[in-house]
Design brief:
This protein is mostly beta strands. The protein is built from 1 helix and 9 strands.
């Protein structure tokens, strides 16, 4: 699936059914899926369009409904699930900018939200 997990793996990770842009028989890879879930402290809205490499992640504080983080990425080359357990879930996003720089974004959804952004020189 071009660097994205299978639909069933995403169901397990986010523990919810997505809302799909096209509810006909369009293949998941070519659709846009929106997952809404919570870890108890933060609420998440994750929107994926695998065929376009688009990933949008919005995080709000549950108690105050205040926005904590918003990422709207247009060129995600790889979306990897790094942990998928009852009390721990995380992903790794990779963006290949050019021949010299790769960016990685590590995101923990459970137990608490955490984001680590790194740039790596490939030469």
């Amino acid at each position: 699936m071009h660097g994205y997990p299978e639909e069933n793996d995403l169901l397990s990770l986010f523990e919810c059914e997505p809302t799909l842009l096209d509810t006909t028989s369009l293949d998941f890879f070519y659709n846009r899926a929106t997952y809404r879930f919570s870890n108890g402290e933060e609420d998440f809205i994750v929107t994926l369009s695998p065929s376009y490499g688009e990933v949008k992640i919005q995080v709000t504080q549950r108690a105050s409904n205040q926005l904590i983080s918003l990422m709207d990425l247009k060129r995600v080359d790889k979306f990897e699930i790094t942990a998928d357990k009852k009390d721990l879930s995380s992903v790794l996003l990779m963006l290949l900018n050019d021949d010299f720089i790769t960016q990685t974004i590590e995101i923990d959804f459970k137990p608490k939200y955490k984001l680590i952004f790194r740039e790596h020189y490939t030469r």
